[in-house]
Amino acid sequence: MNSTQHYKLLILGSGPSGLTAAIYAARANLAPAILHGPLAGGQLTTTTEIENFPGFPEGIMGSELMEAMEKQARRFGAEVLVDSVTEADLSSRPFKLKTQDGVLLTCEALIVATGASARMLGLEEEKELLGYGVSTCATCDGAFFRNKVVAVAGGGDSACEEAVFLTKFASKVFLIHRRDELRASKIMQQRVLNHPKIEVLWNKRVTQIRGSKKDGVTGLTLFDVVTNDESSLDCEGIFIAIGHVPNSSLFKGALEMDKAGYLI
Ligand code: NAP
Questions:
Q1: Which residue, 103, 106, 131, 217, could crosslink 211 as a Cys pair with Cβ 3.0–4.6 Å?
Q2: pTM as predicted
């Protein structure tokens, strides 16, 4: 690749939005280039089976769906660049974007489809123990917890899905939720509440993750938001599934955002 490349249209992000944009733009003869970004195919590649994408009555694996979308975009001439943008100058046209591989990309139009990343609890230990018992992806790391006790933090669809998936490996799964009602869809709630291996710990916040890089996670300290009691839970892994934050920091000051950092 040359050190400077010009495109009529650049698309940042290779998740469903980026690839859908690429399919439409390529069919409109805009000769788009799509940048994979740090996670090729986006977050759906870290999920298991997708049951609610129209057109797949038997479900489809996330990675398979994303491969098919990319193939479809390439079929109409979209170019796929395996690189990530590190700096963006949108102050004048053509827009200028520097990449991790040291390439300067310029473009007349830019579509930002950079998606979001897992939100973390904000505890010091979770950074230190990420990959040592702390995870944000059950499909990636679940198999390391065969016959072990694990916890999942969160009460939405992601947390429920992670909890159910982990029952394939773990001997017991605790779902820790900060309220007394799950946010997840009814069907996911039922799967969690009816599962013999899953126990929901209601009204609890994780305030400490115990362990070390040598021993991995050994347990959690939980705070009950109703009784103000503190308790301890022994487990060998914790999966954090409390939602996402938008990957928009590249455009701070350059593009309008809401309070959460989502582009307007
Ligand atoms: P979400 O719906 O925003 O749920 C986040 C959960 O984490 C909530 O239960 C929230 O508690 C809890 N939470 C947030 N911040 C927390 C903190 N600091 N400490 C403790 N708990 C915290 O996020 P999601 O589950 O990732 O789902 C995102 C979207 O994707 C949703 O629209 C969901 O339906 C969809 N999704 C669908 C599927 C599926 O259909 N199979 C699978 C995954 C995701 P509160 O409830 O108290 O706010």
A1: 217
A2: 0.78
For residue 188, give both structure tokens: 């996911």
How far is 168 from 164, CA to CA, in rounded Å?
8
pLDDT digits (tens, 9 = 90+) for 158-187: 999 999 999 999 999 999 999 999 999 999
Cα–Cα distance measured from residue 228 to residue 210, given in angstroms and rounded to the nearest whole number: 20
Is residue 247 within 8 A of residue 232, CB to CB? The reply is no
Give, for ligand 1, the residue of 49, 120, 178, 188 to mutate: max count of ligand atoms closer than 8 Å to Cβ: 178
* Phi, psi dihedral angles at 112 (to 5 degrees): -95, 115
pLDDT at residue number 2: 57
Is the CB of 157 inside a 6 Å radius of any atom of ligand 1?
yes
115 C-beta closer than 6 A to ligand 1: no
Q: Name the closest-CA residue to atom 37, ligand 1.
A: 157
Query: Does residue 178 line the site of ligand 1, with CB under 6 A?
Result: yes
The answer, yes or no, to whether any atom of ligand 1 lies below 6 A from the CB of 154, is: yes
Give the per-residue pLDDT at 13: 96
What φ, ψ does residue 159 adopt, rounded to 5°? -60, -40
In the DSSP assignment, the letter for residue 103 is P
pLDDT of residue 232 exceeding 70 = yes
Task: Note the helical H segments in the chain.
Answer: 16-27, 62-75, 124-128, 138-141, 157-166, 186-193
Q: How many residues comprise the chain?
A: 264
List beta partners, residue 106: 6, 96
